[in-house]
Structure formats: structure tokens, C-alpha cells
Amino acid sequence: MTVSRPAAVVILAAGAGTRMNSQLPKVLHPICGMSMLGHVLAAARELDPAELIVVVGHGRHQVASYLAGQAPDAQVVVQHRQGGTGHAIRVVTETAGLGQGTVLVTYGDTPLLRGSTLAALAREHAAREAAATALTTVLADPTGYGRILRDDRGAFIKIVEEADANAEQRAVTEINSGVYAFESSLLADAVKRLPTDNAKGEEYLPDVVAILRAEGHRVAMVTTPDSDEVCGVNDRVQLAHASRLLNARILEEWMRAGVTVIDPPTTFIDTSVVLGQDVEIGPGTQLAGSTVVETGAHVGPGCLLRDTVVGKGATLSHVVGMSARIGPGVTVAPFTYLPPGTELPGEGPGLKRSDAGAPASAPAGKRAQP
Predict the structure, then answer these.
(1) pLDDT digits (tens, 9 = 90+) for 115-144
(2) Which run of H or of E encompasses 269?
(3) What average pLDDT does range 335-350 have in this prediction?
(4) The domain spanning residue 45 has which CATH number?
(5) Does 341 share its domain with 195?
């Protein structure tokens, strides 16, 4: 396999996610218009892996149903017993198998991880000719994460889980993200020999790294400076934090592409939204679903549009639109509700630019009264 096309990307998505306090599996909670798992799948696909494998467990029927509709190319592997990350990979090797080459392991609750970061991990893994390569970062508060232990020269020693770490080890701020690149044949052999003599009695994937190093294989590390990328989402507070970070990333990309965003802190745009050049987005605006805003349109302040098309040069202020179509050059009157199926024709032969719209209490298509 080439570096650009690993043998497999394995996404671990079997956890219970009890801290979400939800009947919806954790990995299916939405962030910026897409489930967390959907974001991870999109990042994985950037590497064009020969196999895309998702390990499911808790809520497996819901997750499998989601994958059947949204990612039919993904192979689903069921981890019936939650025996740890190493156990999950052992189940993969025993039930699905892995091709020859590089295998990347990531998680369904890390929606901020970029495909470019996974690709950099794969490149470094190949360049170092390593058996295993771990993605690490530095956190001011490393609570909850396994720590990276190095020797005096900075070389890797081992990864120690927080539950098994002593006070000195817990003071280490370089953490293991849990994202790895492995050589598939060595991984498949090592997961058969994972110990369970730890605080939880589980099979830990970091112990694969320790096994390979002890046997003389090369272990490498890649440290990402953007620690937000690798932080998992375990509760709704962290979900909201991740949403803000991802939304800021989306807004920055659109602004650099020629869109004016008047007030980024109050503007929310889903990943699936498409914006034209010289679009202006006013404060307090949310664009969701398959919304398209064409060149030169002004949307906001105070707009909520879902699955709505806004034509070139149109102007909207304090408008709610649901699956509506607004033609080129149309000005929609403030405080208008456009229900599903609404079509406001735009400028064309024999037509002039006009105001259009209807408040929630009036029939659609009638001009709103000031």
C-alpha cells in the first residue's frame, strides 16, 4: 500500500457515552449539521483507505442504521463486549481482517480531527519505517488521558493510562491522543498478546505500542500543535465547545474564500452549506442543511435558513426560511416566514426588483406589512 492509500482506517465507535445522558448514541450527536461520526468518516475518506471499518457496540443498531444510509462503503464490526480499545482492534483482526500496509486507528467522538492530520501521521509513519506511530499533543490539563513518557533524550519509553499512573506520571502534560498508525501484520499479532493486568482489567491499545517496542520494533511519535483536534467529546458541555471550535473553522474558511461575516461569534453555518463570492452574512444568522446562498446576496441580520436557496443579489433580514427558493434580486421583507415549498421568483425579462415575503401570520407569498 502507498502512503496516500492506507490498508485501512479503523474508527472506534463502540463506547456507551453515558455522560451524554442521552438515548442517542454519543457518536451520532450532531455538530455543525453532521454527526460526530460523520465528521470522522469524512476525515478518513480524505486518505482513500482500501478499507473503512467502524467498530460499533453500544447502540449498535442505531449506529449501523446510520452507516447503512450515510456510509454504505464502511464495514461494520460489532464489539459485543466492551473490553477496551485493544480488544476492539482484536475483534477487527479476528472478524474482518486487515490488508497489508498501514492501518490508522481513530475515534468516532473526535469530530475536529482533520484529514490532513491523519495524512501527516501516515506519512511520518512511512518515513520513519515504524511499526507503530502515535499522535500526541500537549494539554494544560491532561486529566483523563494517557501520558507519554520519554527518556532524558526525548525518546519514547511508554504510554501509561491515567488510572495506572503515579503522581509523577500524572504531572506529564504530553498526552496520547489514542490515534495511531500501525503496520497491519505486526498489529494483528500484537493484539493477541495484550495483558489485562490494569485497573480496569481491559485490553489497552497503547500496550500494543509497548509490546512492539519491547520486541525491538521502531516506535515513532507525531505531535500536533492543535490540541483541540484530538480532544474527544464525552458530554454535552464538550459537544458545545467542539461546535464553537468547528464553527469558527468553517467561518474562517468561508471568509478566506470571499464571504463577509459581520459578526462571527453570532453566526452559525453547517458544513453542508454553500456560499458564493461576495455574500454578506449579518449578525445572528444561522444557515443550516443544504442551504445555498449565491453570489452577492445579503443574508441577515437575524436569519434562520434551512435547505433554502438564495439567488444572486437577494436581500434578507430577520427571515426564517425552510426549504424555500428565493430568486435573484429579491428583497424579502423583514420578519417573514417562508414555509417549505415557498418560491419567490426573481428578476428576469419584464420583471423589476421587488419586495416579497409573508409574516408567519399571513399567507405565503404576500408582501409583509411594515
Answers:
(1) 999 999 999 999 999 999 999 999 999 988
(2) strand 268-269
(3) 83
(4) 3.90.550.10
(5) no
The answer as to whether 246 is a domain residue is: no
CB-based contact 354:330 (threshold 8 Å) = yes
CATH label of the domain that carries residue 348: 2.160.10.10
Cell of 282: 449579518
Q: What is the DSSP letter of 254?
A: H
**Do 119 and 204 meet the contact criterion of CB atoms below 8 Å apart?**
no
Length, in residues, of the chain:
370
Same domain? For 182 and 267 the reply is no
Question: Which long-range CB contacts under 8 A does 127-131 form with residues at least 24 apart?
Answer: 128/218, 128/220, 129/218, 130/181, 130/183, 130/217, 130/218, 130/219, 130/220, 131/182, 131/183, 131/186, 131/212, 131/217, 131/218, 131/219
pLDDT digits (tens, 9 = 90+) for 13-60: 998 889 999 999 999 999 999 999 999 999 999 999 999 999 999 999
Predicted confidence at residue 163, as pLDDT, reads 85
101 in the same domain as 155: yes
pLDDT at 227 > cutoff 60 = yes
Written as nine digits, the cell of 40 is: 470522522
Q: Which residues lie below 8 Å from residue 342, measured CB to CB, with a gap of 6+? A: 321, 323, 324, 325, 364, 365
84 and 216, same domain (yes or no): yes
What pLDDT is recorded for position 364? 38
Instruction: Tally the domains of the chain.
Output: 2
Q: Which domain holds residue 157?
A: 8-230
Q: Each residue of 264-315: pLDDT tens digit?
A: 999 999 999 999 999 999 999 999 999 999 999 999 999 999 999 999 999 9
Sort 300 into a burial class: Cβ within 10 Å, 0-12 / 13-18 / 19+.
buried
Q: pTM, whole model, 2 decimals?
A: 0.89
Neighbours of 1 (CB within 10 A): 17
| Catalytic residue set | 19
